[in-house]
Amino acid sequence: MSHMGFVVAAYSATALIVVGLIAWVRLDGAAQRQALEELGDRPRGGRD
User: Fold this and answer.
1) Residue 37: alpha-carbon gap to chain centroid
2) Membrane-crossing residues (predicted)?
């Protein structure tokens, strides 16, 4: 009895999940950098 199909499916699913997580982290990092840039460009409120 061969379990090759299960092994291939498990590794494929794992690879897909890892690639998805990497893409999510990269996209979120870009969004966070953009938000920080916008926050840094705002004028500071306060008494002068």
Assistant:
1) 19
2) 6-25
